[in-house]
Amino acid sequence: MNSTVLKKEFFTQTDTVGIARALLGKTLHTKFQGSHTSGIICETEAYCGVEDRGCHAYNGRLTDRTRIMYAEGGVAYVYLCYGIHNLFNVVTHTTGEPHAVLIRAIAPVGGINHMLKRRGLSDSTPQLAAGPGLVAQCLGLTTKHSGLSLFGEHIWITDAPVLPDNDIIAGARVGMNFSGPYKTIPWRFRIKGSPNTSKAR
After folding, report:
1. How many domains, in total, are found in the chain?
2. What is the reported pLDDT for 201?
């Protein structure tokens, strides 16, 4: 496995959709209180700025929650969904451009014992981290980690070769409860045949 940590230049590219595709197959790591966990990224969704109706910063929305999206790419954006689930995103693009990629599923590879404990389970299955809320739970990520660098000691992503197009499934993002082209735009990416991705919608 390639142990090269992705650099800032990867996250500050202006093609967030391309970043979302390129993240597939790379490994997301966390280390909190001595517990190192990791998983291969199997599913992502791109959210692309103020014109994207699915993006939290649509129409220039700027709140305490979304402020971190306007930072230079290479930091974490973690928010609470429905008051229950922490969802982990990587901020992309340049300063002032609120883009991000949601990590929707991983294939656990390291620290699975810690993941099971965080989930209150005794046995692992391919669906252990198949869903964005489960990703954050397994990796110990919460809203208190929003804004952390992706190049520090707590959260990082290691490189892997870019997957060929025929190994990737593109489709509409989940939960787009509005009308218009951004409802069905194919900015959700999954590794074809992976048992670790969330259910197709």
Report:
1. 1
2. 56
